[in-house]
Amino acid sequence: MNDGSVRTIGWRFSATIRPHFNLARYPLDEALLTVRMAHRQIDRPIVLLPDVGEYDLIVPTSRPGLAPGVAVGGFALRDSYFGYQADDLNSTLGIPNFSRQIGAPELTFTARMERGFISPFISQMLPLIVVSGLLFAVHLMMTSHGDRQRAWGATTTSTVGAVGGLLFVSILSHNGLRTSLGASEIIYLEYAYFIVYGALLAVALNSILFAAGRGGGLILWHDNVIPKLAYWPAIASAMFAITLLVFW
Hints:
- By secondary structure, the chain is an alpha+beta fold.
- The chain has helices at residues 118-140, 146-152, 156-181, 188-212, 216-220, 225-247, and strands at residues 30-37, 75-87, 104-115.
- It contains six helices and three strands; from the N terminus they run E-E-E-H-H-H-H-H-H.
């Protein structure tokens, strides 16, 4: 298009982009999707400029450059913006006086996304909360009073059996999480599984010590009240400490 003073050349192109997301903070992670653009005549010192004057709003929260209603599965688009990135090729590519060899600015378009919380909460976090609650119920049933033991069927064997069942459910959920994400590193949510594994082991060990009359006042005092009172604070404190380490 040519209006006499300015010649406008337009290109239309499409691309399928398969980004690699950093899952270390899943499910509280966010992702940056950056598209780098350069002129096809790489031997010429041409710098691409976004036509910012044609946008009604250019502030990042107005998401310039993105069509209204565009969506990325599992993510909510927060903002978008244009920028430049130094293109250090460290090679002339066989072109004399190659201008893009060192520090040539390359136009970038970046969209920032944050993961939706509802789906991970229902599919991965809710099972952990249920397992933790059931484990606490099993923990509360441990008693030295014969009438309560008979009414609840609370024995060391039943406690260890219940712990084994909850462990099986946790392992299945944990395996499903890693399979669905294809993660190669330990992610934030996995630490919650590690805490639950530790709680399962602690409750089983506590049951055995309590039945054997071992462990002193820490285990035997007031019908095992100290481990019961420490259950939720210990889990919450461990999760809080891990959160600080991951996000600090």
